[in-house]
Amino acid sequence: GFTDHVALGNEEWNPWDVDEKNQLAASQQRYEANLKMIKYARSHVEQTSLRVQIWGKAAIGLYLWQHIFGGHLEPADVTAQWREGSQNAGKTYFSFLTGPSVVPGYFSVEAEHVVLVLNGREPAKIAYATQWLHYAQTLMESRKIQHVAVVLLGNEQCNNAWIQPYLKRNGGFVNLLFVTYDYAFVNEEDIFQWPLGVATYRNFPVVEPSWSMLHDPRSYLCNFLGTVYKNSSRETLIKILKQDGLDKLCWIAAREQWQPQETNESFKNYQDALLQSDLTLCPVGINTECYRIYEACSYGSLPVIEDVMTPGDCGNSSAYHSAPLQLLKTMGAPFIFIKNWKELPAILEKEKKMSLQEKIQRRKKLLEWYRNFKAWMRQKFINTLENSFLPGDKG
Prior knowledge:
Blueprint: H1 8-12, H2 22-43, E1 50-56, H3 60-68, E2 83-89, E3 92-98, E4 113-119, H4 123-141, E5 147-153, E6 174-180, E7 191-194, H5 211-215, E8 220-227, H6 233-243, E9 250-255, H7 264-276, E10 277-282, H8 291-298, E11 302-306, H9 326-330, E12 336-338, H10 344-353, H11 356-389
Parallel strand pairs: 1-3, 1-4, 4-5, 5-6, 6-7, 8-9, 8-10, 10-11, 11-12
Antiparallel strand pairs: 2-3
Protein name: RXLT1 xylosyltransferase
Domain RXYLT1 N-terminal: 52-195
Domain RXYLT1 C-terminal: 201-390
């Protein structure tokens, strides 16, 4: 049951129950059940049996904490040197630390169980991540901490061999690994797939669904704002859109070079494009999974995903029958998956004929799915840590 993920605030205005009067009673019951549960949780705060400190040393830590956990950080200023937050969840008290001032040896370790959020995308990041792992190992050896889990922004080609020796199964000390992209070593025992999420390094916000986001007609059938790499399927996509004059019906802004940092204006344009389009086109980049998928979900714009495996070592195993995007597919993501952009004109023709009412229903379904997806990831994360870290359980 995910009842514990519904914050009180969400129940005051629930866009999914607007038209269904008979569901008001159910909503009221849920509200009262939540109240009871919150009171119950408060009276049982002292019963948390696990204290976990999360050290957020990669931007995906903010997706974990603010988007999946719905946690807050003080101070709110994203440029602050030190930010922290805490919450009770399940049998666990979580605290989260992030910012440039969180440096090995220069902050107090206040839990026996630690989750390290690391970036392993490229050699320089791996070198930095390794320093943190060695610090954690020293704390383990001196018995200051008992367990370590890692949430890893993996390499886009899934070359994550460097982390393997640190895993307990290989003689190391890391109990659990949550890793992004379709890493072939995911086994649902000690290695789990983790969602890439939104680009928190560009300060993509936590978006609350609004009435107008659900109900207003949108000006564009689709959008694609992004880098067009030479000889990529993105070039094909742009050609197909221009050929049929479909680029007039969509918000298309292509650039030739990737920019890690947005300007305020380009970022606002991007958010507006998501909000003003029924579909968001997601051509493959270096990996099929991209921030754009999750960002489109945040604004109720349906991702149209180029469902092809990218070169590298992602998903090359018998377990990966539904790769790429194994995690999203397993969770029943209601996206449009295509194998080739030549399928796009037919999809857009269908879009033109859809009524606003049908689009509203689709947005509701998408936003509700995304809300449930985050709740499920949170629950799975908590359960996995508790099963592994609590005494008497395995691990």
